[in-house]
Amino acid sequence: MTVLGVLYDDARARSWHPLTLTRPAGELLFGGFTFRERAEAALGVRCIGHCGTAHLRGFDEFGCAPVLEPEAIPRAEARLFLNSRFVPDWTARFVTPGSARAIVCAGRVAGWFAPAGTAAPAIEALESNEAGDGLELPGAFIEEMWDLIDPGGAQLTADLAHGAGVPSASLSGHVHRVGPPSDLRAAPDVVFEPGVVIDVTEGPVVLDSGVRVRAFTRLAGPLKVGRETTLLGGSVSGSSIGPQCKVRGEVEASVLLGYSNKAHDGFIGHAYAGRWVNLGALTTNSDLKNNYRPVRIWTPAGERDTGRLKVGCFLGDHVKTAIGTLLNTGTVVGPGANLFGAATPPKYVPPFAWGGTGEPRYDLARFLETAATAMARRGVVLSDGMRGVLETAWRESAP
What we know:
Blueprint: E1 3-8, H1 11-14, E2 29-30, E3 33-34, H2 35-43, E4 46-51, E5 78-83, E6 86-88, E7 101-105, E8 108-114, H3 123-127, E9 135-136, E10 139-141, H4 154-163, E11 175-178, E12 184-186, E13 191-192, E14 196-199, E15 205-207, E16 212-213, E17 217-220, E18 223-225, E19 230-237, E20 240-241, E21 246-252, E22 255-258, E23 261-262, E24 267-269, E25 272-275, E26 278-279, E27 284-285, E28 296-297, E29 304-305, E30 313-315, E31 320-321, E32 326-327, E33 331-333, E34 338-339, E35 348-349, E36 354-355, H5 364-376, H6 384-396
């Protein structure tokens, strides 16, 4: 039986600002996969889109599943509605039940199965914590935005062990590997220049098709590098890097969602950057306070204690920083913000800020023109749907 997957963002996922202001939570990278990619691979369903995100209707970004209008979700086939924050275990086996049932993980509702021809579940059922007689699936929930940063690399290591789909690498003599050969995997067309060191003693390193690794780069696992990304030198460790990025300098325990540039020296650690981010030369974030106390960050509900000693920054889609930008521990920067000027930006920078304080704002027409130009440099067109999503974010984030 064909089962279609639909991921839905609940209230907690929708609060993951700045990341979910311009994209559904299911398209966020956690470990080696986005939530959508992992659900498809682990449960054997084809995800046709996302729901529960009214402000994102029209989202149709290249390489992602679209955000669907409720009436556009087909009823002719069986559907599995899955909480975007649910991370199924790789041992999970989804067996299609004979009737509508909740999907349960450790007593919590993780989703809902709707047989062919039946209506989609009500949002109250998807948000409910009363599981009842549900189909049990092993896994876990991501509760907070900062949990998307995987400092020990446990999720990344598990993902790369079970679903990488990349063969073991065959290295020439000018590339030095430290650790077992089976933990280094690279697509056949990956290019290594002389003087590259790859350390897999702490976890696997996986390089997708079209990756180029320039001389004097040190890679340390667990590490996943997406297709057509270029590593320009420096130290990259414990991180998940999406497609078509340019990375140089020091990157530690961080996520670059994709199509972003960190092409110069500077440190990014325990950080999460959305798509189409451009970090000017020497942009650096702090990820540890001088008093060694837990990091507090801005959230839509007010400032919160993360309980973590190391938290870097969270950068929304299309954020730009000038050369020499310094970001404090736990800085949150809204999508579309353009940071420049002599002063260190505040720990919370509103969406579409021009200069770093929120006043004045980035002119919408000029922002969209810049976004379209930046995307065209990667061969991607700013679609009418994504233009509408960005316009909605600009309007709804106005002071």
